[in-house]
Amino acid sequence: MNIRQATEQDFDQIWPIFHEVVLAGDSYGYRPDTSKEEAWSLWMRSPRQTYVAEEGGEVLGTYYLKSNQEGPGAHVCNCGYMVASQARGRGLATILCEHSQARALELGYQAMQFNFVAASNTAAVRVWTKLGFETVGRLPRAFRHPEQGLVDALVMYKWLEQSG
């Protein structure tokens, strides 16, 4: 498995992953009908950096890294992760999250925050908790799950620096 910074050309392989995840409507707050152009802006243009995990030239997962806020909150970053359905269950989310934490420290961030984790996404909550993220907030009925209806959204946070 190779993780590297994404190029514009990688988006042709990121798009099917993005589209599949967003269309499912069970983990991200993006509209299911998000266009390829909007997805490119959200995943490639807006973040500070975007990465891909590939194997044999095939992109199996991706994440972005960006500042969660500007100004006094710019030391906290935010990431979003997506894994292709055929690559799930192999620990790729863990690998991507560990990579993103190391990269965040290299870029000068001190903490990482996930703003809107659907509580129904138990696999993600389990992985993030295992990696040291704490649930610091709960937004009641803030996420509309396609099968479960209104579920809570979690704010998860981890201080990355060893001291402080």
What does this structure look like?
- This protein is of the alpha+beta class.
- It has a domain at 2-113: 3-Layer(aba) Sandwich (Aminopeptidase), CATH 3.40.630.
- Helices cover 29% and strands 37% of the residues.
- It is built from four helices and seven strands.
- The chain has helices spanning 11-24, 36-45, 92-106, 122-130; strands at residues 2-5, 49-55, 58-67, 76-83, 111-118, 134-145, 149-159.
- The chain has a seven-stranded mixed β-sheet.
- Helix 1 (11-24) packs across helix 2.
- The longest helix is centred in the middle third of the chain and has 15 residues, at 92-106.
- The chain is globular.
- The mean pLDDT is 96.
Tags for this model:
single chain; 164 residues; alpha+beta; Aminopeptidase; globular
